[in-house]
Design a protein that fits this description.
Elements (H helix, E strand, L loop, with lengths): L13 E5 L3 H11 L4 E5 L15 E3 L9 H19 L8 E8 L3 H13 L8 E5 L4 E12 L1 H12 L2 E3 L6 E4 L12 E4 L4 E4 L1 E4 L16 E12 L8 E3 L3 E2 L6 E5 L13 H14 L16 E10 L5 E6 L25 E9 L5 H17 L14 H7 L2 H9 L5
Parallel strand pairs: 1-2, 1-11, 2-7, 4-13, 11-18
Antiparallel strand pairs: 3-6, 4-6, 5-6, 8-9, 9-10, 12-15, 12-16, 13-14, 14-15, 17-18
Helix pairs in contact: 1-4, 1-6, 2-6
Amino acid sequence: METTFNKRKIEGKTAVVVGGGISGASVCYALSQRKIKTILLESESSPATQASGNPIGVVYPFLTKHKTKESEFSYLAYRYFLELWEALDLGIHVPHKDGIHFLLETSSAYDRYSNAIKSHQIPADTVLIKKEKHSNFDSLYFQKGKAISPIALTKELLRLANPELKFNSPLLRWQPSETNGKNPDDGTLICQTETESISANYLFLTQGYQFTNDPKLRWIPMKQVRGQIANIPGSICKNETSILYGDYITAELNGERVLGASFDEFHLEKEPRTKETIMMWEGLQKHLANVISEDQAIDLKNFGTRVSYRTQSQDRHPVVGKLPNVSELDTTVKYQNLFRKNGKPFQIPYFESVGILNGLGSRGLTHALLAGEILVNQITNQTLDNSQLTMEIPEHIIQSLKPDRFLLRMWKRDQLT
């Protein structure tokens, strides 16, 4: 896939990406399209080991009855995912099954999502309302929605991006170098791991729930959320596509399916909860009894369980953008004085060459590729001119993703000190 851009400003530049999940891999891919040397730091021994959808995740958009910034971004991200999927022939290397049914079990659900199709102007070759044969309920059917291996997708993006990989290398701290001037194009950042100090021109922070280890990020209102899934033998269920009904049952991949997922933002223990597996199974029996194979002996104790964590922002919208430097904020500027004579505007200082991509929640697979492209474009100021990809991202969507929104809310509430 050929791309063109202004090479002069990025020749010889180096980027460090922190976090080897789908977000970090997406940023690495976007950087590779700009020919920027990239170093990936990952605290684990391999990519995407903490992916919340591991071993099988689902790709589909979040929709609302009427357009919101969240649903508009999600639909754009879904389209972008599908465009890259085709352009890069990702299906050749990434195990997947096409087809997602989202059950519409009530009249209010039918009203919400049938209107969502209209308000978001989604064509029939992307989604349509169709009977799901096992439940006989109407459903939103995403023909190209996918059950997919998050690890395989992450590894394939990293293969295409070809960054320098440094596993078992958590980032301990970072700071602008002492020689870093006011011009971000002239400065460098110092990134410290347990074994080395790395100089970089750009830094991208995508480390998920480990963001709390970085004191420069702790002001961002994000939280760790616990999820539990059950791995079940593929033969136990008969569905050929993935079905969502509050919980979900995936299509079969490599002889297994995933039944998921619980959600807990208050109690975060790592040990699996047998009660949650039982509740998920009972939910499947209630909503999709005809999916379960009649000739299979079921013993829930034999189900594999997996606990994982994802990061969710206060408003459940992704956090994507240049990182504000809160230590340089002028906290004497008050919102209540803004409209007075000679009132000072609130100005946000930034780490000009540092970006954050976090808070993707349960839709990291769907959202990460577009979020990575948006972030790299902002930080490097290099927009790709690529005729194979047709995405145009409205400015109000880009603005809605920025971490600035949390500072502005805190400022208006006089919560900055």
